[in-house]
Amino acid sequence: SLFSVPYHLTTIEAVRQIHSILKSDGVVIFNLGSALTGDSGRFFQAEFATYRAVFPDVLVFQVNAKRAPEELQNLIIVARKTDSPAAAPADPQIAELLSHRADTAALRAGAPAAFPAAEISNQAILTDDLAPVEYFNSLAQRNYRPGQ
To answer: In the chain, what are the domain boundaries?
Structure first.
């Protein structure tokens, strides 16, 4: 379900465990429903901060790149164990999908425009002791409109 997330898989302890079992060039892909910004984006912002605390390279893709950052949408987090440049895909369909990448440099830097600094840099990392995933998703539910 869009708003039902197993919180124990979102914490820094889980992310560290995932990191530890990956090969040196390993990748983890995490799908979530969230906005990028605003109250509806608090779960994404916390999860992004959590993955950035463990992985050197974290990318975010909007499944529908036409969605505004404050809209609830399908997001894909891709965390790479290495930050070395990835080869460009030969397949044009894959290249097109990769063009949906959100500006994670802006997210990391807390850039203005779409990704205000306060929303990312002040976001607490999710832990086994504090992972308010249900609370964050309740904020998104409040703004959710089926058929958007």
So the answer is: 7-143
